[in-house]
Amino acid sequence: MKQSLFTLEHARQLTGDVWELALAGDASAITAPGQFVNLELPGKFLRRPISVCDWTEERLVLLVKEAGAGTRELVRLPAGTRLDLLTGLGNGFDVSAVPEEAVLTGGGVGAAPLYGLARRMKEAGRSPAVVLGFRSREDAFYLEEFAALGLPVKIATEDGSLGAGGFVTGVLRNLPDCRYVLACGPSPMLKAVCALPQLTGGQFSFEARMACGFGACVGCTIGTKNGLRRVCKDGPVFRKEEILW
Ligand code: FES
């Protein structure tokens, strides 16, 4: 974990409530896709945990969903604003443990960490299929970015306005080789994906209310088959076989 100041390069609106923030600063503490940062909002006491979409040693990209006064203010900060971040938080996805036929699946802003994951898997010579779910065409984002990676991408929208109608589970169920998933999204989606009968394994990234973000306050504890675990420190990524729904 590292605490350092980042400079906001830009905030770009992707949909009605999802924004891309690019930040320049020392991102060297980030070691795995699926890790997150804990960002201090000006004038706010609690930091905001935000998953990392993509990064280099000197730059971070975060996708932020506007969900209240704090994030509304954050995405409207002018370029050049200095922000205090804790970086390199959480375990992230373990790509070394992923079988060849793994599928990446994300719902809503849960697609964000899958982009960095997909990019790294592609660079490592892998070509995982990607299945993304959104409420509607208007809510979909980063489709061009995923497509530019040259990976097979399938979309599901709840209202059927783009791709398959319904949820990602409908698409995953029909993928013949889908035995293992790397998933990020809201809890009901993760639960439904985890219950797919064809799955032999997977890694699931959880969201939780957090305070410290680095394991000190136990405010984010969940029960697992291996006992109590802190989402911020032991997760946010948990293996299929250890999750208690
Ligand atoms: Fe403090 Fe997880 S947020 S232990």
The whole-angstrom Rg is: 17 Å
Uncertain spans, ≥5 residues at pLDDT below 50? none
Number of domains: 2
Cofactors, ions and other ligands in the entry:
FE2/S2 (inorganic) cluster
CATH superfamily of the largest domain: Nucleotide-binding domain of ferredoxin-NADP reductase (FNR) module
CATH architecture of the largest domain: 3-Layer(aba) Sandwich
Shape: globular
Regarding CATH, which class of the largest domain? Alpha Beta
Give the overall average pLDDT: 95
Quickly count the helices.
5
Task: Please count the beta strands (DSSP E, at least 2 residues each).
Answer: 15
Class per helix and strand makeup: alpha/beta
Span from first to last CA?
29 Å
Approximately how much beta-strand content do the residues carry?
Answer: 35-45%
Order of strands in the sheet with most strands: 10-9-8-7-11-12-15
CATH topology of the largest domain: Rossmann fold
Helix content: 10-25%
